[in-house]
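Write out this protein's structure.
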Amino acid sequence: MTISGGEPTILSGTASVEIRSGKDREDENFPVGSLLIRRDLRPHVHAFYRFARNADDIADSPALSGVEKVRRLDRMAAILEGEAGLESPASVAMRASLEYTGVTAQHCHDILHAFRQDAMKPRYRDWDELMDYCRYSAAPVGRQLLDLHGETRNTWPASDALCAALQVLNHLQDCVADYRLLDRVYLPLDDLEAGGSRVEDLMNPRLTPGMRRVLDGLLDGTERLIAAARNLPPQIMARGLRWESAAIVDLAARLARRLRQGDPLAIRVKLTKSDFALAFLTGILARPPK
C-alpha cells in the first residue's frame, strides 16, 4: 500500500475491525504533522495518527464490550506485524510506513497496550499509576516523531514529559464525557479522597470546592511536566520539529492556565485561535541546539 495523505480503503466484503468517530487531526488540541514538519515525513506522521486514532476510537466506543475492544485491537496488532488481512487499513498503512522508514513498531504496540488498558481499566489509584498509563498512551507519540526525524534518544525524557502533560490536560478537559459516556475516570482516586471528593461529583453541573482542589493538584503536577518539557526544543536538531515542539510546549502551558481558571464541568475548556497564533510565533523563535 502506498503511504499518502488519503484514507486507505477496504475491499468490498471485508469486515473492518475499525470504528470511525469522525474525529480527525484538525480536531486535536495540538498540531499533528503540520506544515512545520518536513514534507516527505508528513505522510508517515499522518499514517501514525490514523493508526492511533482508529485504535482510540475502538477503545472509546460505548457500543463495544471490553472483550470485543481487545479482540479488535489485537487484530490491528497482528496485521501491523504482517498477518494477512484487510480488516484494519490503518494497520496496513502503518506497516508500510514502518517498512519504508525503518522506525520500530514498538511505539505502535505501546499505543495498542494503552488502548487495551482503556478497554478494561476504568480507574487509577494515584499519580504514579496515571503516569504509567501515559508511558503507553502518550509517550510513544513523541518517540515516534523523534525516531522518524532521526533524533537521538537523549530527547526522550523531555518528550515523554511533554506527552504526559498533554495527556493529563486532555483528561481534565474531557473528565465529564469520559465518566458519563464510558464510566472512565483518570482523576486518581487517592487525589479525590484527599480533596474530599468522589467520582460521582463529576455529575455536578459545576466544580465543587473539593473537586477544584483535585484539579488544581493535578495541574500542579502537569505544570512540573511542562517545565521539564521546555528542555525538549533546544535538543532537537530538525528545525521544523523543533519549532513544532516549542509551539506545543507553549500550547500546553496555555491550556493548563485556562483549566486553572475555568470549570471543565460547566463547559469544555479549550484553546483559542489566538493561543495557536501566539504559540506558533513562540515556536519559530525557538533557539537551535548549541
